[in-house]
Design a protein that fits this description.
This protein is mostly helical. The protein contains four helices and no strands. Helix 2 packs parallel to helix 4. The two termini are about 25 Å apart.
């Protein structure tokens, strides 16, 4: 029974994560009318920034999480001005290609900075 309850809890947590990502995608598309395919890569960038702050600079978990949110907000502003604003009024598939380009650039930037292998954030407790 304990294993069943743990799996139910895991499913609820994973479903909540998917719901938050879907809500973010819906909000961005509803406001900008441009699909941000790099949305998941922004989450990935935030996780790696948090990992970097904890392991390299010695931050504790909660300040690193708050600072990574600020860094991610700044990255979102840069992405808006460099990628999405120039193609906002462009027709056809131009916004889609720009969003895919942002996806590829962010993903490869993380691979160059932190390597292709996964990393773990140390347990805050």
């Amino acid at each position: 029974m304990e294993l069943f309850l743990q799996q139910v809890f895991n499913g609820i947590m994973l479903g909540s994560t998917y719901a938050i990502v879907a809500l973010g995608l819906t909000m961005v598309f509803g406001i900008l009318h441009v699909p941000n395919f790099a949305h998941g890569q922004m989450y990935m960038l935030g996780a790696y920034v948090c990992f970097f702050l904890i392991t390299v600079f010695g931050f504790t978990y909660w300040p690193a999480l708050a600072l990574s949110a600020i860094v991610l907000a700044l990255a979102g502003v840069v992405l808006e001005f460099l990628v999405f604003r120039p193609v906002r009024d462009a027709g056809g598939v131009t916004p889609f290609i720009a969003a895919l380009g942002a996806l590829i650039i962010l993903e490869n930037a993380v691979v160059v900075l932190w390597g292709p292998e996964g990393h773990r954030i140390p347990n805050p407790y």
